[in-house]
Amino acid sequence: MKSPFAYQPRPRPLQLASPGAAVAYLGAIVAVAFLYSNPLVLLAAGAAAVTAGLLAGARRAVWFALKMGLALALLIVVVNALVVDRGATVVARLGEWPLLGRVDVTFEALVAGLSSGLRAAVTMVAAAVYSACVDPDRVLRVLRPLARRSALTATLVSRLVPVAAADAARLRDAGRLRGPAAAPVGKAPLARRLLAGSLDRAVDVAATLELRGYSLDAPPARNRRSRSRYDRRFYAVAAFGLIAATAARALGADDFQTYPTVEIGLGGATLALSGLVALSGLAPLRRKQNRRSPSADGTKVPLYGGKSSRRRAVVDRSGEVARV
Amino acid sequence: MSELAIRRGAAPALAVRGLTYAYPQAAQPALEDVSLEVAPGEFVLLAGRSASGKSTLLRAACGLVPHFHGGEIEGEVRVADLDAIGAGPGELAIAVGYLAQDPETQVVSTTVAAEIELPLEMRGDDPLDRARAVEEVALALGIPHLLDRTVDTLSGGELQRVALAAALVTRPKLILLDEPTSQLDPVAGDELIWLLRRLNEEWGVAVLLAEHRLERCLAAADRVLAMEAGRLSFDGAPTDFLAWARGNDPTLEPPAARLFALAGIDPLPVGVRAARQTLRGMGVAHPPNRSGRRVSDPLPQVPVLQAKGLWVELDRGDDPRDVLQGVELTINRGERVALMGRNGAGKSTLLRTAAGLHDPVVGKLSVESIALLTQNPSDYLVRERVGDELPGDEGLAALRVVGLEHKVDADPRDLSGGERQRLALAIALAGQMQGAKLPALVALDEPTRGMDHARKGELVNLIAELTANVDFVNQGATKATGAAVVVATHDVEFASEFAERVVLLGDGVVIADGPMAEILSGGWYFATEVARVLDLPGVVTPAQGAEALREERS
């Protein structure tokens, strides 16, 4: 079964955008999450990452990342509550614990953990959206002239990770199909077998790279400027979001205190920034074409005006109608 | 030599002189004193048994030997006048493309377009030149609709075409192919061979193709090379090769040639078309008779597998798909069944569901007991001693069933391909044999990939033993212990040798089910070469065909 985080090409703005634009956009959401501790802003950043992923069609990636991210957030909340004894509002006294000593769970520690957990969850969702929506080949093509060896390593890894996952699934199936009198597979022999298989695969991939000319000392190939008509939108949203976040922080939008008592700032700047950050998740929205519906009498109305119109509809390779 | 001169084909596409090569730490050389030439635009078929040196020769011609594999090499290999031993595979890529058996191992990018473009990018070609070359090779191979897809969503046939496109995108003068059809269904396999022929004729690409299923490609070849134990044992025209194979290695003889030889007809045909022309010239013609009559006796009715309205849905990560759609099937004890159909028809899914690896979404599947051997026998081998894989008396009993009881102390990695396969089968069988009784159903998924004819013969014998009423534990006592054997396969010739019944799946539905001779003589793609030559209901093997021809002539 294909990983939910595997890249899936779709004719959506985020997939069509150049890697730089996509990284800038998703990176800005993560940057906001690291600039702020206020849970409201973090929730807004999370909503932006989730909305962006859903609009890009990466529903499974978002869902899996949310599950993993929220599980991690919960773990952080629990650990923080157990190991931090600061805070004025004790919600539970758990007595003496080995290694931890006296454990008093405070409301403030829970909220502080929630803030860190939300940050981790936002980062995971954004990373999942990146993984599912940004073409790794295009990223490697950008990296290759800059760092050839690193790009080679990344190529091998990006190919071998899904192949190793498929090998592991096959080996698990073969383990289930062994007769009851055959020796049980055991984790160590299975791991050894998987490693040996991965090495064989790596040799095959390396041979293919040799045949494709990876070892040639040819000058780095020039690349097409892989821009899309959506790049400006993503760069603009990223820049605007970062500038707004920095400015709002200077204006006190990150008004959030956990100890000794919780104080969450909900001032105008915080609310405005949260709204703005949440709205940034709409950047991958694809505008519907301004098609005119057939007239009431059923006659077809030409796109973009009649014969006299100087605009005409063309279909680009991704199948989208663009105006020229 | 300049690139322009290479492109004009001024030199032989491949020239090998006195080539001897041994892999690192190998006791015997893989190639011994091999000399040959392939002219520009020639289509050459490389025949030979497994381990005869075919793959090594191809690897030497593309520079992987010795540059990638190491070892000791003597002699000369020139590809379009480039010194293949001096130059590396990357430098040779301008003149030679290479396509290996398993397309999975030949893709390194995520999307099809990036995969095809990679060799040009490595050469430093201009972006516009790259875009045009990708577009042209995609059009030539009929895959422009795949360009924006990711490689993990492609079928085996599609992936093989993408790998071929990546090998051809630099417009090499020579393309080397190592059993490229072994994992393809008959439709995709035939398409690939004729695609190669078209490229050969229209682009002038010289082709050196190693294949076991000679019936598939002999008619397309200009010349045949045969290898035996690392040496070139034959070099000549396809018609001469048939005569040579008859006298020297009958396992290399295609079914149509065997049919003619058994019937005493000359000349031996290189393919279906030549065979039909010869028969027409002799005045032997058969009116098409598609009465659909059953040609064998009804089979005993002791069901070991019953599928009723079986629907199985698989989700490979994109969209869930109903791979099996209401399958109705009963398999009886002692039957030998070939489960056939194109790639993705649902053959493996049916066997895996029977073995409990998938659950039906609708319908019912009941199996008495099953041992399933999947497509990669190596997946079953995780230990370094055969006896450690199969300990105890029950393990030994399983080894005895497959004839490996004398290999208890061997390392599975030292076994031959056929022995590894039998060991994997023993692992699946172990403990499922209640006393002398085999599991009710033994299922093999594509067991003949990359096998030569001799090894297929061994497998046919093993299947016959599994279905026979033999007590393996007590060695010889006859009891009603035979298993039903179901083999998912694309290999129609193999199916005609072992099966008594063929079930044909199409898009998750059983579209034909009946006696082997009836099914394999009633179509075009899923028909043996003899059936395609004679077009007689129920006549599928060379022996049956020869008998029919003798009757017709008398």
Explain how this protein is built:
The complex is a heterodimer of chains A (324) and B (554). Chain A has 324 residues and is mainly alpha-helical. In chain A, strand 1 and strand 2 (101-106) form a beta hairpin. Chain A has a two-stranded antiparallel ribbon with strand order 1-2. In chain A, strands 3-4 form a two-stranded antiparallel ribbon. A two-stranded antiparallel ribbon of chain A has the order 5-6. Chain A has 3 domains: 13-138 and 227-280, no CATH class; 146-211; 292-324, no CATH class. Chain A starts with 12 loop residues before the first helix and ends with a strand. Chain A has helices spanning 13-16, 19-35, 39-55, 59-83, 107-133, 136-143, 148-176, 187-211, 231-250, 268-280; strands spanning 90-97, 101-106, 256-257, 263-264, 313-315, 321-323. Chain B is α/β, with parallel strands linked by helices and 554 residues long. Chain B folds into 3 domains: 7-95 and 174-253, P-loop containing nucleotide triphosphate hydrolases (Rossmann fold), CATH 3.40.50; 108-171, no CATH class; 303-520, Rossmann fold (3-Layer(aba) Sandwich), CATH 3.40.50.300. Helix content of chain B is 34%, strand content 22%. Chain B is built from 21 helices and 19 strands. Chain B has helices at residues 3-8, 54-61, 64-67, 89-92, 112-123, 127-140, 156-168, 186-202, 214-217, 238-248, 255-263, 272-281, 347-354, 386-389, 392-401, 417-429, 453-467, 492-498, 516-519, 529-534, 542-553; strands at 14-22, 31-38, 43-48, 72-79, 82-83, 96-99, 174-178, 206-210, 223-228, 231-236, 303-315, 320-332, 336-340, 362-367, 370-373, 441-445, 484-488, 501-506, 509-515. A 6-stranded mixed sheet of chain B has the order 6-7-8-3-9-10, sandwiched between helices. A 6-stranded mixed sheet of chain B has the order 15-16-17-13-18-19, sandwiched between helices. Chain B has a 4-stranded antiparallel sheet with strand order 2-1-4-5. Chain B is globular. The N and C termini of chain B lie far apart (62 Å). At the A-B interface, helix 6, helix 7 and helix 8 of A face helix 4, helix 5, helix 6, strand 15 and helix 15 of B.
